[in-house]
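Record format v2
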Amino acid sequence: GEDVEQSLFLSVREGDSSVINCTYTDSSSTYLYWYKQEPGAGLQLLTYIFSNMDMKQDQRLTVLLNKKDKHLSLRIADTQTGDSAIYFCAELAGGFKTIFGAGTRLFVKA
Amino acid sequence: IAGITQAPTSQILAAGRRMTLRCTQDMRHNAMYWYRQDLGLGLRLIHYSNTAGTTGKGEVPDGYSVSRANTDDFPLTLASAVPSQTSVYFCASSDSGTGGKNEQFFGPGTRLTVL
């Protein structure tokens, strides 16, 4: 079945770049997503990439997609303390069902 | 309001009791979802609904039921709560039209503790 895997924790210093990695199994996924969850809140879509793209840049965020290896990454440039949150990788599988990873908790040290 | 609301915010429940978690959206989205979030396991889909009048089972449906009488409301019922249902429950909705990016919008969550 479909599965999305990501590491559980990442710690960076303020001002450094953060890179969060994810692997997925469904090669037919049309969209891949990064959702952000701040403490005590629901998830919010941060960015997404369509499966025919290799890269998407949005201000401090860069998404890289390697379809051959089924690998997705999110790079946050100049990481700030406000970026501390849980980041979920997800794939759109089977038309409307979204499969989420376990989430990577990003700690930003001042 | 704009978005998706859930009630209650939190609840402590005795095992064996029946409980309904409420979810309402005002975005006229056709699809709605219930997830539970547990540490280290991420989000797991409990039940979903593609459109009013239809529902489907997700990854962890046992012990839960849902209904979708109209577009806006998607209540989740625990018929007889057990301690393993202690979790944070999130409702979400999306416009799941063909070819769209199917962005899901999440409610603020309900923290449920079953003793």
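Chain B touches chain A at residues 31, 35, 40-43, 45, 48, 50, 90, 92, 94, 96, 98, 101-104, 106-109 (CB under 8 Å).
The radius of gyration of chain B is 14 Å.
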